[in-house]
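ENTRY TYPE: paired fold submission
RECORD: A
CONTENT: sequence, then structure tokens
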Amino acid sequence: MRNKFDRQLAKLHDMMIAMGGMIEKAITFAIHALVQQDETMAKQAIAFDTEIDQMEKEIEAMCLRLLLQQQPVAKDLRVISAALKMITDMERIGDQAADISEITLFLIGETYIKKLEHIPMMAAATSKMVTESIDAYVKMDLELAKQVIDYDDVVDDLFDNVKNELIELIQHDKANGSQAIDLLMIAKYFERIGDHATNIAEWVVFSITGKHVGEK
């Protein structure tokens, strides 16, 4: 019975990794579409959201089967419960990558009011957080999970830089206002992705220690 449970748990881990990989792709496509003003890439990032939603449903079903059929012990119960919580944040990340690309579609053809520097850095940072939070879950790596939580400060600092730069551009010329708001919204979505990645890492901490430090 335990061997069967361990095989199913391994399958759950594989599904979590696959969902994480899809989220990374969505973020990568979204930022590429923004920087390159690539309509096709933006639409692909939006399309990923449907696949991510489907993955969430499949993982949820797997978790419920494990809970109902296998009667897991306390540690296993935390691992499965954490997965159920994590996929909610993962699904929201997919939503936000799609939202970023929706805004990008409106910006295609416009000349950007500033060089996109800190927003791509935010995308890279949040993608790193997502990857490492899933790795921490699969490997039961407490220190890596804590590093992800701490790394959210990097994303917050980048968001503050973007916000301050855009405010300055609006003050300099009000004609910059419309695009500045769009870019600020995109930066805010990336900040929220960082928050969700932090939530994921916090659930990893819970799965290992039984203590949850609190959701954002």
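RECORD: B
CONTENT: sequence, then structure tokens
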Amino acid sequence: MANNYERIVWDGGITKKFEFYYGYKYAGEEIIPVRENKAYKIVYTNDKEELYFDLKNNQIVRYKNPTLFAQYKKAKKSLGRERYLKPHEFIVTDKMREKGLVRRYFAKFIFDGDIMEISKQFSSMKTPYYQKILITWKLKGTKEQILESNTKSLRVADGVLEGMRYHLDPLEFYEEELTGLEKMQKKLSNLKY
């Protein structure tokens, strides 16, 4: 520990009853409390640890009354940095269209109310400043079926993310299904002479 410390506070304080215990086991006892009214020093290490020693250099462990430094470290560990979600552009593939139903993920920042589509990977991430929702989006069927299904999905989503029902067109990605004859005529029209 000789060179591993950043600073030492020689007059760290005076122990209170059951505030500290010795950091080693002695004679089979689990915890040996430090007597009250004993002076101690605080050592701050280079790796930002806070250690306590009595004046005979026996390490003691704080059990109660954490310092502001200890409270800060605990809060910093539990909070972490806020993650900001990035918008995602949803692209329909032939495989999705063939399946007929897809899952789409949306989030709303609680402070400004903007709704954005996000990728699946962000949907499971812990983000306390966002409300998130998953909706099932219909791609295959008649125009009426798609309109009814997607409108219902938007109405349900609006209960979680207010404004969601106005955010998307229920017929987004709708393609009119062609009959066999219409498909053949389209293919023939694409032939070049």
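NOTES ON RECORD B: The mean pLDDT is 84. The beta strands are 5-14, 20-22, 39-45, 50-54, 59-62, 101-109, 115-118, 130-138.
STATUS: closed
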